[in-house]
Structure formats: structure tokens, C-alpha cells
Amino acid sequence: MDGSANREITRREQLRLRLTRLGIWLKENKIWAATLMALAVCWVAIHQALVPYLVEDSYIHFRVAENLARHGAPYFNPGEAVKTSSSTPWTLLLASHFLFVPRGLRFVAFSASLISVFGLLSFLALVKEAAGRRLLRWEIALLALVYLAVVQVASVMLMETPLALALATAGLHAYLRRRPWCFALFALTACTRPELVVLAGIVTLAAVVDRSMNLKRCAAWAAAGALPICVFDLIAYRTIVPHAALAKPLIHTYPFAGTFMLTLPEALRDFHLSVLIFIVYGVAYVVLATLPLLRLNWSRSLLRDRGVQLMLITSLAGLVIVGGYLYGRSLIFPWYRPLYMYFLFLPAVFYAARSGKLAPYLALVGAALPLLYDLGGTALALVDRPQEFRHFLEGARARHTHKVAAQLARAYPGAVMMTSEIGAVGFGFDGHVEDAVGIASPGALKYHPLAVPEDRNSAADAPVPRALVRDQRPGLLMAVDVHLDPVLRDPIRNEYVHVRHDLYEPADEQRRLREDLLWQNVRYLDVLVRRDLWQSRKGDGKTAR
């Protein structure tokens, strides 16, 4: 009892000492502290400015979380036990927000900005610990920019990736200090983003080889982190595997070259010598993850250096994750890239911080230039230029889709909606949504893969299957023009009234930087209303075809 009380007093003293040091630092560095606070406020403001331009997959999480908050079941369609979301911890966090503020996307955006700020602080603390010295102010500023450039797209899209990276970074910091509870964080990281099972596995292997930690305690902590999420998934879905992991390989097929280009920053596509630039940067990121290790003078004693161990762990994690994407020829979304890009950067970051020299930092900036370029475009949302955000067109399309879907929900209550992209439609249309691609509706998978070019333009495309429409005859269909073209060419089209909408809101149409600048070469948002429903409503004010 006395020992417990003494430990509590010691913890209080440590907390008091840290707060005192923080107070002294703030007094001595008022300008620096004010600058950091201003940047944090700007980061929050950027997230708020881009809330209207969230993308399709953001809304998938929102619908699942909203159903959990409202109905107590984490399903895309109430009563259909499909693990549509790939991140149960993120779903639970979103649901907790919606309990207090229904559909409070700005509340979520505020939390997302704080999560990435927490991730940044954890990252700087990890680098300082690995370097074994205080970082200079210019180092802190440079590393902060690189970190934010890596996570910014996923963060402003309100996706789960920054949360996963923040947990992983905190776990690596705890592992550096040989704290067994780091494995609870790694387990939770893997539950937040399945790809990061790779990181958890590599750290576990390192702990077994190093033998500097009590493995039984590590296993107990890992179970404490993973079991609650796994039990929740098994009760809710009877599986821990996201349904998208089974559906996407069947739906989408990418050539190796296409997947390779998707692994790299999108800003590289702005260069005219695009293929050459992609090859150069592809090699550069591999060098970034491996060269710092090759420059070390290896010995047994060096292997016991915890900073070197971190370099090995993060290098392997980044290379294995991106290698898995390439091997699977996967469709890589922008919020997937930080899951490996962050770990490819970390060995070079640790090496630069340990050396304290300018040259490694310059190499780091060179590798991060495409990411920093896009960070600059995102920051322009602060001055009412959201069109400079890399994914503005996709977000503007989702914004208008959400609005049209909400109008259809009011016009045709009780109707079944079928669509090829369930995010914005699902969050706007509060009735039953049939997923023609099969991620939220497993029954649709038997209609895939679709033939090329009869039913889709390429093996990477996923339009509405004609046979699915013939078999189910939903009351409403809604998709971008290229995803409904096969249906419009089919005789089943005669049972529907075709209504064509603009792709963007008028204000967003005016923001478009060029007339020929389109999202995926799409021009219209098409709606098909079954004729019996149309007759009951006598149209919705749009011109029927």
C-alpha cells in the first residue's frame, strides 16, 4: 500500500516538474511558442475550410458510424452484417462524435486536425529520442513540414490513416524505451489499418531477437490492445477481415506499371516527363529507406543501438507494405500512401537527426518536394482557394452527389437506391443503398468482374452491372455518366426515366481551374427513376430523357 502511494507521489512530482519546465520554456521562447500556436490554428482552419470537399470513402465511414450511433449496429445498411469499414477503431471514434453532434463533420474535422498534430508531436519526440540530442529549431520546422506533407491528404479527408500513424509513432517511441505496453499500441495500430500488421510483426520479431523485454508481458499487452476490437468485430460481423479486402481484388485489376505509378505522389503527374520522373522518384524512395542503413559501420554492438533498430524496423515495414501493394497490383488511394511513405522516410530522418548535418536534410527535402508542393496547394484553402487542393474535383463531385441523393431520399421515401459509389450517395440517401460494386452488398460480387470493353472501359473501372439491374430492378439508380452507360445501352433502360444532373455545384463549376480539367473525364451525374415511381411523383423538376 505504501509502495503504491509512493509511486503515485513520484508520478505527481514528475508531472509537476514537466509542467514547470514547459512554463519556463514558454517564457523563454515566446515568439517560437506563438509561431507554433499560430501554425496549429492554421492547420485546424485548413481542415474546416475543406469539409465541403470530402471524398467518397470519407462518407462510407460516416454512414457506418452514424448507423452505429443511431441504431447501435455498425452496418452500412441496417440489418446487413457486412464489415464495410476497414477501420473499426475509426468507426467507433466517429460514432462517439455523432452521438454528441449528429452529422457533425466539422466536429470530426477538428478532432482529425488534433490527431495529426498529436502525431506530429509524437514524431518529433521519437526523432529526438532516436538522435539522442535536442533538435535545433530549423530541424524541428523542416521535419514538421515533411510530416504534415506526408499525412495532409489523409488528414483533411478525415480518414483513419493519421490516427494509425500517430499510434504507430507512439508505439515506436515506447519500444525505444523498452516499454512492454508499446505492443498494445501496435495491436491497436494494426486494427486501425490492416496493412500495419506488417509493422507489428516486424517489431515482434525484433523483440524476440533482442530479448531485452519480457515477452509474456508484451504478449499480454498486445492482447489487451487487439482483443476488444477483434471481439467487437466478431460479434458485429462474425469476421475480422474487411469485406473490401475480398471484393476489391475481384473488381479492379491494375497492370504493374499502373500500380507503381499509384504508389508515388500525385504531384509527379504534373511534369511533362512523367514516366522518367516516376522512375527517378521510385528509386529515390527505395534509396531513402536503405542508404542510411548501408552507410553505417555494422557490428554486434551497433545492432544493440536502439536508434539503429528503429531504422531497420521502419525501413523493412515501408518496403514490405509498398511491395505488398505492388505484388497485389492493388488500387492505391491517396490515403494509403502515408502507410508506407512515412516509414520509407523515417530511416533517412533518423540518420539526418543523428548526424546533425545539412546534406542529409537536403536529400530529405528533395524526396519530399512533390508532397510539399501539394501541401502548399492544400494550404491555399485558407484564402478561399479550395480548388488548389489536389482532390478538389473529386470532393466537389461528392458534394453535389450528396445533395442530389438527399433530394431523392425526400422525393422517393422507401425506395431502394443502387449506385456504383456508395459514399456520398449513402450519407445523403438515408434509405437502403444497394452497392453495385459489392463492397457493402456481397450479393453483387457474382456479377463481377465485368467484361472489357462490353461492360466497362478498362479493368480498373467499376460501373453498374447491367445484369444486376435486370435482376433487381431497383427504384433508383445514381452514378456518374460512365458508370451508367452500360445500363443506358441495355433494354432495361426503357423501364426507367433518365434524369441528367451537372457534376458540380454552380459555385464549384466556376472554381474549376480549366474547362478541360475534369475528374476522371466525367461530365455528368446521371439518375434513373423507375417509371412507376416517376409517375407517382411526376418528376423532380429535371428534364427527363
What does this structure look like?
The chain has 545 residues and is mainly alpha-helical. 64% of the residues lie in helices and 5% in strands. The protein has helices spanning 2-28, 30-49, 56-71, 88-100, 105-131, 137-156, 161-176, 182-192, 197-210, 215-237, 243-251, 256-263, 274-294, 300-303, 306-328, 338-355, 358-379, 392-411, 422-428, 466-472, 481-488, 506-511, 531-537; strands at residues 417-419, 433-435, 476-480, 496-502, 524-530. β1 (417-419), α19 and β2 form a beta-alpha-beta unit. The chain is globular, with a radius of gyration of 25 Å. The N and C termini lie far apart (80 Å). The model has no long low-confidence stretch (mean pLDDT 90).
Give a short summary of the structure.
The protein is mainly α. It is 64% helix and 5% strand. Helix 9 runs antiparallel to helix 15, helix 12 (256-263) packs antiparallel against helix 15 and helix 18 crosses helix 19.
Strand order of the largest sheet: 2-1-3-5-4
Uncertain residue ranges = none
Mean pLDDT: 90
- SSE arrangement, N to C: HHHHHHHHHHHHHHHHHHEHEHEHEHEH
Fraction of residues in H or I helices: 55-70%
Beta-strand residue percentage: under 5%
Put simply, the count of helices is 23
Search tags:
mainly alpha; 23 helices; 545 residues; 5-stranded mixed beta sheet; single chain
Write the layout of secondary structure elements.
Elements lengths: L1 H27 L1 H20 L6 H16 L16 H13 L4 H27 L5 H20 L4 H16 L5 H11 L4 H14 L4 H23 L5 H9 L4 H8 L10 H21 L5 H4 L2 H23 L9 H18 L2 H22 L12 H20 L5 E3 L2 H7 L4 E3 L30 H7 L3 E5 H8 L7 E7 L3 H6 L12 E7 H7 L8
Parallel strand pairs: 1-2, 1-3
Antiparallel strand pairs: 3-5, 4-5
Helix pairs in contact: 2-5, 3-4, 3-19, 5-6, 5-7, 5-16, 6-16, 6-17, 7-8, 8-9, 8-10, 9-15, 12-15, 13-15, 13-16, 15-16, 16-17, 18-19
